[in-house]
Amino acid sequence: MVRPNAGTKGVPRLDRETQILDIASEQFGTQGFAATSVAAIADKAGISKPLIYNYFGSKEGLYEACLDRGGALLADEIEQIARGDAVGIERGMATLAGMFALLEPQPYLWRLFFDATAPSTGSIADAVALYAERIDKLADEGVTELMSLAGNDDPLDISAMTAVWLGIVDSLMNWWMEHPDESAEQMMERCLRLLTALFGGNE
Amino acid sequence: MVRPNAGTKGVPRLDRETQILDIASEQFGTQGFAATSVAAIADKAGISKPLIYNYFGSKEGLYEACLDRGGALLADEIEQIARGDAVGIERGMATLAGMFALLEPQPYLWRLFFDATAPSTGSIADAVALYAERIDKLADEGVTELMSLAGNDDPLDISAMTAVWLGIVDSLMNWWMEHPDESAEQMMERCLRLLTALFGGNE
DNA sequence: CTGATATGACCTTTGAGTAAGTTACCACGA
DNA sequence: TCGTGGTAACTTACTCAAAGGTCATATCAG
After folding, report:
1. Are A164 and B175 inside 8 Å of each other by CB?
2. Cα separation of A5 and B187, whole Å?
3. B5 CA, C21 C1': Å apart
4. Most-buried pick from A135, A179, A203, B50 (CB within 10 A)?
């Protein structure tokens, strides 16, 4: 029986995996885990579903691979910034600048780690927790510094402030996704203006 | 043939609808639209799936009913606060206070209008848009005021700042959901402390 | 010819939605 | 007071479609 589409297309496994991860990350990041189907990813990649299963084992395996690639990127970047000497709001701004630069082509990567529709148990949850905690820990560290400058060391206050900070980053990434023409630099300048407006117009 | 569980249980339709809406709102609000199954709602309510379909027509109809009930509540509250004379950060805080008071028993209601897994077309999208735009418009109005105090009237800046503001509210609601013992008043005091820390510790 | 790349056609599970029937309540006439 | 019929409340047992996952097989490069 003739199958006109079967047989290798000459794409090495690593290249194909990279391509699949690119597409999957975008889909997962923009639509969420639950709303993304493996068949849709296969379609976009111009390949068939079984190839994805062959390479990644399962939908969860694929998501995990996306997490590993994106999480290392994100966490490494933030950790490097944390090693700098900026403190308080300064450090927040430096972090933002780094994130914008890093995520310029793909702001949706950020969403991978804050997707409510991803499984909350099993190995995905572990992987998410791993990176989310790394990010969270650094955020917490920065916030703790900021708060201690203001003489506040209440753990719940710090926890809430950290949540707010991550929420701010999250909303900026979402806004960016809706305004894809903005460059990382423009985003950063915008953030500085917003900060000025906040501190200048009041108090 | 005997069906031990069939037949009315003597619960009037309105009562049952209210009960279903309570449970559905909580499920949709905490798990998201896609991850919530009608069967699970029926289970929690101690009734069968068809009764829900009988009353609400479809999963989307049920979600829409949740939106209508919750959206009216939220938008009315924010609109009322907007009629007050607070301006800038003050207005933001007044809004927060109102939201905390209103959502004390059910912070997850807020999530209904910002659920990425809800259908983005059809009547649900319309209903979401209706309320989300009402909320958004008021947020935009407040932010525009705040920004103009600082001499900034760039539309994109205002748009981004509005997104950030809504993101802050969002993250506070999420944090609240993870700390259900906090009262509305405690939440508000906490927010004031965070604000103080932000303005006191820097600049 | 062997192994890597690749696929069509299937199986299976899950969850939305429905058809058809069962039971309890209640108004009303005798 | 006692049927009795109509309606509202409610369920079991299904259908159907979508999506995760698998199997056997086909093609091509070296």
Report:
1. yes
2. 60
3. 13
4. A135
